[in-house]
Amino acid sequence: MRRRRGIRKVFWLICSMLVVIGGCVPPERPARGRLIRVALLEGARSVAISSQSTLTIKDAASGKVLFRTENRKSVTVSGTSEGAAISGKPCGARELLVSSTSNSLSVNGKTYPGNLRILARNSGLLVVNLVNLGTYLKAVVPSEMLPTWPEEALKAQAVVSRSFVLHHAFRNDAEDYDITADKQVYNPEKRDPRTDRAVDSTDNIVLFYRGELLLPFFSTCCGGFTEYAANVWDTKDVFPSPVKCPFCRDAPDYRWQARMSLDEFQEKLRSAGVASARSVAVHSRSTSGERITALRIESDTGQSIIKINRFRLLMGPNVIRSGLFDIQVDGGYITFRGRGWGHGVGMCQRGAKVLAERGKSFKGILDHYFPGARTKKLSG
Ligand SMILES: [Zn+2]
């Protein structure tokens, strides 16, 4: 692909998200059976809950039963300045525990395993799903990787997702929840026997790097090479070096294209306070090579530096799928042509699929994408 300096029509961009990565993680904490606290809703005014069996709501502080129903009716919990209200009546509690005899609850029409913890805060309700680690992973792995993919790729995803959530859980031990439901996609309705097996057969296996539990990232398709985490996120932690990935080049997501009118492009920039953009140029690039970390935009009001993660959000993260692309301006339209899908840090899922098809084990796949890291089975 061609590149030019200054005002240009060709750009390489990196996708990124704002993630601040925390400090040390206890390396020997048990994993099996641990409850994961998944934030489903934050700041909600109310939530509708139902169950196919007996549903009980208790005051978390006193243990007193506040509500119980066996008629499968939905109950609404809302937040007031006095605390939580059940079916519109203040119950005098700020924290509720919701359980069912079937260990399954519907939250705003979507079914989740385990129990709920609801906190009535001034900012609204925080609804947290309390779920066993294995059950959580059996909802995450099929949400993040197709169950039809090779077994060793699914097992690699299971190890990565387990390490990812445990890192968050250990780090957020003193917080109200461990992880949000979209940090890695948690959709219990996607469960599949094939991904269940991948989770069970890698039980308690996680990734360690330099003596600590690794926070292993992954993305759909790296576009040919992976990226330094520190070039994408604000972190001082140490991560494995990026690697070349020639394995994803035949993937359907390897190339993408997006096209919009210049008026639409300028309108999207206007929401960032950039009026009448005249030109866009690369401001900085990743030290790993071609990915861009920030853009410089000249407009009637002066010069603006826009970090690449913000640029992707302004354009639409599924419009600008990755940081690797060029731009062409032609006939009143701007066309983005790029490679890869996602931030490019850590495991390339498309590459993992190809490696598994070529006979690599899940450990071999992880060795490639996390050089220097090793798998370790935590005590149960
Ligand atoms: Zn790749």
Description:
The chain has seven helices and 24 strands. The chain has a domain at 36-133. The strands form six sheets. The protein has a seven-stranded mixed sheet. A six-stranded antiparallel sheet has the order 7-6-5-2-9-10, with no helix packed on it. Strands 15-14-24 form a three-stranded antiparallel sheet. The longest helix is centred in the middle third of the chain and has 21 residues, at 151-171. It is an alpha+beta fold and 380 residues long. A hairpin with a 2-residue loop joins strand 14 (205-209) and strand 15 (212-213). The protein has helices spanning 133-144, 151-171, 193-201, 262-270, 308-315, 349-357, 362-369; strands at 35-44, 46-50, 55-59, 65-69, 75-80, 83-86, 89-90, 95-100, 104-107, 110-113, 115-121, 124-132, 179-180, 205-209, 212-213, 218-219, 255-261, 277-285, 292-299, 302-307, 324-330, 333-339, 347-348, 374-377. 20% of the residues lie in helices and 34% in strands. Mean pLDDT is 87; it is low at 1-25. Bound molecules: zinc ion.
Main features:
7 helices; 7-stranded mixed β-sheet; alpha+beta; binds zinc ion; 380 residues; 24 strands; disordered N terminus
Overall structural class, as computed from helix and strand content, comes to alpha+beta
Distinct ligand kinds: zinc ion
Low-confidence segments, ≥5 residues, pLDDT <50?
A: 1-25
The helix count comes to 7
Annotation, overall tally of beta strands: 24
Largest sheet: 7 strands, mixed
- Overall radius of gyration: 23 Å
Question: In one word, what is the shape?
Answer: globular
Overall pLDDT score: 87
The N- to C-terminal Cα distance equals 50 Å
Percentage of β-strand residues: 25-35%
Strands across the major sheet, in which order?
4-3-8-11-12-1-13
- Helix percentage: 10-25%
